[in-house]
Specification:
By secondary structure, the chain is an alpha+beta fold. The chain is 23% helix and 16% strand. It is built from 3 helices and 6 strands; from the N terminus they run E-E-E-H-E-E-H-E-H. The strands form 3 sheets. The protein has a two-stranded antiparallel sheet with strand order 1-6. Bound molecules: iron/sulfur cluster (SF4) (2 copies).
């Protein structure tokens, strides 16, 4: 990963949340999550994404794109953009100052090497 945060706030506007049974799709699952993690009450359901997963915005985000309580933000906020990308359906949002460098999977190298071997 390269780059840095330019404080655009976009990662706080379109959030996907992951519960014990995977990414949240139903409002009832979010209600269950709040029983266990009341600190998630800051998140508001804003709709669903193309994949049918619930999307959230954060009520702690100011109009200027800053976090109301930066020091008390959640671990998933501190870790963004994390390798597992809790936010935004697996990629950084438009305007984000970070760039996730593509990592080529080992299986891809293996297939290529085998192909070269077959040609010899
Ligand atoms: S708590 Fe702060 S950093 Fe986390 S999503 Fe909300 S506004 Fe963004
Ligand atoms: S989207 Fe990227 S650049 Fe914008 S606030 Fe979030 S981490 Fe920073």
């Amino acid at each position: 990963m390269t780059g840095s945060c330019n404080s655009c706030g976009n990662c706080c506007r379109k959030i996907n949340l992951e519960g014990h049974r995977g990414w949240l799709r139903r409002e009832e699952d979010f209600a269950d999550m709040l029983l266990e993690y009341p600190e998630y009450e800051r998140f508001r359901i804003s709709g669903k994404d193309d994949m049918g997963f619930l999307q959230f915005s954060c009520s702690w985000l100011t109009d200027e794109g800053a976090c109301r309580d930066h020091d008390s933000r959640l671990p998933l906020c501190r870790n963004f953009p994390d390798k597992t990308l809790h936010f935004c359906g697996g990629t950084v949002p438009p305007g984000c100052g970070y760039l996730i460098n593509e990592v080529r999977p080992f299986s891809s190298y293996l297939a290529e090497t085998r192909k070269k071997g077959e040609k010899r």
